[in-house]
Amino acid sequence: MSRVGVLVLGPAGVGKTTFCNSLVNYMQQNSRRCNLINLDPAAEPRDYEFTIDIKDLISLDDCMDEMNLGPNGGLIYCFEYLLENLDWLDEEIGDYNDEFFIIDLPGQIELYNHYNLIPRLVNYLKYQLNINLCVSYLLESSFVIDESKFFSGCLSAMSAMILLELPHINILSKVDLVKNEYSKKKLKKFLNPDPLILNDDLNRTTNPKYHNLNNRISNLVDDFGMVQFLPLEAGNPDSVRVILSYIDDITQWSEGQEPKEPKDQIEIDDL
Length: 271
Ligand SMILES: Nc1nc2c(ncn2[C@@H]2O[C@H](COP(=O)(O)OP(=O)(O)OP(=O)(O)O)[C@@H](O)[C@H]2O)c(=O)[nH]1
Known about the structure:
Elements: E1 3-9, H1 16-29, E2 35-38, E3 52-53, H2 60-67, H3 71-84, H4 86-93, E4 100-104, H5 110-113, H6 117-128, E5 131-140, H7 141-144, H8 147-164, E6 168-173, H9 181-191, H10 195-205, H11 211-224, E7 230-231, H12 237-254
Parallel strand pairs: 1-4, 1-5, 2-3, 2-4, 5-6, 6-7
Helix pairs in contact: 1-12, 2-3, 3-6, 8-11, 10-11
Bound molecules: guanosine-5'-triphosphate (GTP).
């Protein structure tokens, strides 16, 4: 039995659900089986039907009404409820063997930062349900083409890497929204960034009293080897193809096979 899963993570509104749909669309068009698992208890139905939907177990609206909670408290409650009822997930995934799962998660930072909810879920998927997992972490291009926001995005991606300890792909989403030539040029620099050069740029525009902090953060990003982002334009099958080839490679790698360099590359000018 071989089950592969890609957890789609990133801040709210970054394009996670749209990316999930683009992956399903691309895989279906290329005769590959895949299943969408929705773990966002607030998600509305989208283009493709979910194979498994947390809302069949618990929905955010019901939980907020019945428990008198706000949206963030309600979300935490839904995840705690899911974790207390993991046999439900087991039953839902039950006979799906030799399958590819695309797992859409909510973007609320509370789930990742203050609680141990997502790591517990990941452990269950990985060790109890034997799903060979990887993470695709999305950051929005138009947001990060500013050095300070880029470093802030890197830190949030690194926090997910450290927290989940899974093979990890970083993606800059919505590249089509970066329109003018100057910004496009900057975007290229951020896809294959040299954190130390970006740090010099950042220091040019920040108060000197922060330079030491900037230097430390850029050294950390540099040491961590977080040197690459893949561009995503959800409506462009070429960008989805390249990302999928990376997902295929790193999930094979985490199964214990030899890592291979993905052959596919995509340039921003190709999109
Ligand atoms: N132009 C453009 N818009 C996009 C792209 N991907 C997503 N969007 C838009 O961005 C908005 C948010 O997309 P979603 O897919 O709902 O984002 P999300 O991360 O799932 O949002 P939450 O679940 O609320 O965290 C929607 O209006 C999408 O149509 C893209 O590649 N290009």
